[in-house]
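Closing statement on the magnesium ion sub-project.
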Amino acid sequence: MTDTILEVRGLVRSFGKVRAVDDVSFTVGRGQIFGFIGPNGEGKTTTMRVLATLDLPDAGDAFVDGHSVLVEPRRARERIGFMPDKFEPYQNLSVTQYLDFFARAYGLRGRTRLARIRAVSSFCGLDEFADRPSTGLSKGMGQRLHLAKTMLHDPALLVLDEPANGLDPRARIEFRALLAELAATGKSVLISSHILAELSETCHGVVVIERGRLVVTGAISDIAKQVKEQDERILVRVLGDSAAAERFFAAQPFVREVIPVDGRLELVFQGGDDQAADMLARAIGAGLRIVEYVARDVDLEEIFMRATQGRLQ
Ligand SMILES: Nc1ncnc2c1ncn2[C@@H]1O[C@H](COP(=O)(O)OP(=O)(O)O)[C@@H](O)[C@H]1O
Ligand SMILES: [Mg+2]
């Protein structure tokens, strides 16, 4: 068993003249939740369909738990659970019957089938809905049933295409909690969204694409570090003459820009911690009355904004 659950290598998929996926490579570690982020129409679903062996790439390959989706699609399929962006419950089937139908389709038999149905129902919080018609569920419960179905064959990697789309805030939060629990049990998740903020708290890492091309990928902490090394932001609040403070900081080494925001100054700073400490000492020495001086954390939104400006390798 390796630490990599998914490796995507140089994936290309065109539709006529549109290169929907254009040489995309990334890896997802075992037990990790990776956010697959990009605006609508940028190639997320196309990539996921290739991973799920529902479509063939023009070039490149992807390996699910070491199995090529091109060379060993059956093996890859056994290890992947794909949740498409549309959920279609079946008329006249209860929640349990719906799960039973797919469990049979996946070739699960006898006690194993019952045990799997019970496990996924309980994990997804569907127990009290067991006898409800599958078509009569709320959007949030419908998504849980969809996820339960995707988990029936106990895949190591779940590929979820915009699962939070159309959910109300409460259902979104509950769905996020479910993902965190999944990762805690050792499962890996690739989850797409065109809404950035949705994934920033849940994910270990991200894959950001734009017009089919990879913009940035990796652990969020690594990317944040990279951005930080390029330029850190320091927020400063000074009592008194803010114009003087602005002039002081603008003249300091390593300060690339001073941006006044909400009564504070945001310094775009290219030095390290040592230089930041020295600058604080100088500011106080120069008589500035500083009440706040904090390095601001880089959030996912900012990483995306910078990445798409091509300032990140
Ligand atoms: N079956 C198809 N035939 C033609 N064009 C397609 C097909 N599927 C996707 N595309 C095009 O490929 C691009 C990427 O689509 P998609 O992967 O669905 O993006 P996303 O999931 O990021 O919104 C879009 O320009 C879309 O119109
Ligand atoms: Mg899509």
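The pocket of magnesium ion (ligand 2) is lined by residues 44-45, 85, 161-162 (CB under 6 Å). With this model delivered, the sub-project is considered complete and its resources will be redirected to Aim 3.
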